[in-house]
Amino acid sequence: MLSSKASAAALSAGANAHGLNLARFRKDAGVSLEQIAAQTKISLRFLRAIEEEQFDKLPGGIFNTSYLRQYAAAIGYDESELLAHYQGQTNPGGSTSKSRRKNGVTQSFLDRWFKMPAEAPR
């Protein structure tokens, strides 16, 4: 039979199986949230949301990725891993590509924006 300490540790490890545990990484790096806020000008509210992986509490749009990049740099975390995790959490099972099919041709966001054909005429 497992001791209560061992089972509590197993439960906490299982609860973090899908999370990044950014707060622990930050603390191990010796950086406080207040230091990050002073350095990046990101509010403590948003920094806490990042650490708790409550991405719906972030302001949205390009601010989210900018905040995540700045946070990762401040604590020495792999930026691409954090952004990939964010994409996985906010767009589960979906494609991150902004493309659409029109008349059997795939058009990217920029193709639609500039009203250019997806393929050059032959």
Structural description of this entry:
By secondary structure, the protein is mainly alpha-helical. It folds into two domains: 71 residues, lambda repressor-like DNA-binding domains (434 Repressor (Amino-terminal Domain)), CATH 1.10.260.40; 28 residues, no CATH class. The protein has a two-stranded antiparallel sheet. Helix 5 runs antiparallel to helix 6. It is globular, with a radius of gyration of 20 Å. The chain starts with a helix and ends in an 8-residue tail after the last helix. The N terminus is likely disordered.
| pLDDT < 50 stretches | 1-16
Note the main sheet: 2 strands, antiparallel
Compute the average pLDDT: 77
Mind telling me which CATH architecture of the largest domain this is? Orthogonal Bundle
The ordered H/E elements are: HHHHHHEEH
Overall number of structural domains: 2
**Total number of strands:** 2
Query: What oligomeric assembly is this protein in?
Result: single chain
From the alpha-carbon coordinates, what is the Rg to the nearest angstrom? 20 Å
- Alpha-carbon distance between the two ends: 72 Å
Helix content: 40-55%
